[in-house]
Design a protein that fits this description.
Layout lengths: L2 H20 L34 E3 L2 E3 L3 E3 L7 H17 L2 E3 L4 H5 L6 H5 L5 E6 H5 L3 H12 L3 E5 L2 H6 L10 H11 L4 E4 L7 H9 L4 E3 L8 H6 L7 H7 L9 H11 L4 E5 L5 H9 L4 E4 L1 H7 L8 H21 L7
Parallel strand pairs: 3-4, 3-10, 4-5, 5-6, 6-7, 7-8, 8-9, 9-10
Antiparallel strand pairs: 1-2
The structure holds flavin mononucleotide.
The site of flavin mononucleotide has 27 residues, from helix 1, strand 6 and helix 14.
Length: about 350
């Protein structure tokens, strides 16, 4: 397949993913959400005024109103660009960090997202590329273009072997990625973040990444957006054999709630982002309680912003983020705050 054709397909796939990610049918089958098992220690004597409780957080040299990153989702099509520009305005006004989705297809088609930086002068903006693309010939130069296009504060490299292996046209050669990451860490002038996309970075992988100098890890575990289910729901996977082949893997991966404390023990000095299934401000507090420095959200942000395929409601997302911030404040108040956990 020619590179141009596969880049075009990758861009089209991004739009299909936007719809499938919002569908209830692609959610992990869970009776009880794993984060609901995490009870923060209740404090019956807060000895402070709720309105004085601070939720701000320093991240990538900037001060956020809360420890929240909208993790990378999309890019490379008109619809994706509209979503990213809308997200940029909300992220700046709500003072939270934002990542874009893979920049590979967009850059291959000469599309720039530099307008996002103009909309986000004060908040962290994070670029994105797949680990597989990084390891290919020209991968380091592509990463540099991704950083330059956004004037990014960091570049996130996603590891998504489950998702790729679930796509009939997906990348299955995962050799050489650690080496490519090592090279990027040593070359890049901005921090490198390594993330999963919903199946989780195990403590062992976190340690391997830390050993080559990656300082920021987004564990992106299972319990939210489910890529095996999304890929299995695409028409390309609808034949009986592919459905039977994928069936046992639909809920594969590490639960966010389980791996967050293990990742912290494995990497005591890393900046750890806990994501995958974070639903609200209490879940953000739970992630911090389990050892995270920051929480990340993607699917719920998209659902709040894009009410149907054509309508973008920035106010609805801003209102939701404000509720999440107030929930985080209340969780700090009722549990004596992170400094006492
Ligand atoms: C529509 C959609 C597209 C995504 N595309 C990307 C991507 O291009 N690059 C990436 O690193 N992660 C991508 N993700 C994964 C998210 O960044 C995140 O790791 C994952 O969805 C788990 O978080 P959640 O449960 O809050 O959705 C995407 C997520 C969604 C919902």
């Amino acid at each position: 397949m020619s590179t141009i054709k596969s880049d075009k397909q990758a861009a089209e796939r991004k739009d299909i993913h936007l719809d499938l990610a919002k569908s209830e049918a692609t959610k992990t089958d869970m009776h009880i959400h794993p984060l609901d098992h995490i009870d923060l220690p209740h404090c019956a004597l807060p000895e402070r005024n709720l309105i004085d409780v601070r939720t701000s957080k320093a991240f990538l040299g900037k001060t956020l109103s809360m420890p929240l990153l909208i993790t990378g989702m999309t890019g490379g099509t008109d619809r994706a660009d509209r979503i990213n520009l809308a997200l940029a305005e909300v992220a700046e006004s709500e003072a939270i960090a934002l990542g874009v989705g893979s920049q590979r297809a967009g850059l291959a088609h000469g599309r720039s997202q530099r307008e996002m930086r103009a909309l986000m002068p004060k908040m962290p903006l994070i670029g994105n590329l797949g680990g597989v693309q990084l390891a290919k010939s020209g991968g380091l130069a592509l990463a540099q273009r991704a950083i330059d296009d956004l004037e990014a504060d960091a570049i996130a490299i996603h590891l998504n072997p489950l998702q790729e292996a679930s796509q009939p046209e997906g990348e299955t050669d995962w050799r050489g990625i650690l080496e490519a990451l090592d090279a990027l860490v040593h070359k890049s002038e901005v921090p490198v973040i390594v993330k999963e996309v919903g199946a989780g970075l195990s403590p062992k992988i976190c340690k391997q990444l830390t050993a080559i100098g990656v300082r920021i890890l987004d564990i992106a575990g299972k319990s939210g957006t489910n890529w095996a289910r999304i890929e299995a729901a695409r028409p390309e996977a609808s034949d009986t054999r592919t459905q039977a082949y994928l069936a046992p893997f639909l809920d594969w991966g590490h639960n966010t709630a389980d791996i967050m404390p293990l990742a912290r023990s494995a990497c005591p000095d890393s900046c750890l982002i806990g994501s995958g299934g974070i639903r609200d401000g209490l879940d953000i507090a739970r992630i911090l309680y389990l050892g995270g420095d920051m929480a990340g959200m993607a699917g719920p942000v998209l659902a709040a912003l894009e009410t149907d395929t054509l309508k973008i409601d920035q106010q609805a997302l801003a209102d939701m983020i404000s509720i999440w911030r107030d929930q985080l404040r209340l969780a700090y108040f009722l549990s004596d705050g992170p400094q006492n956990w």
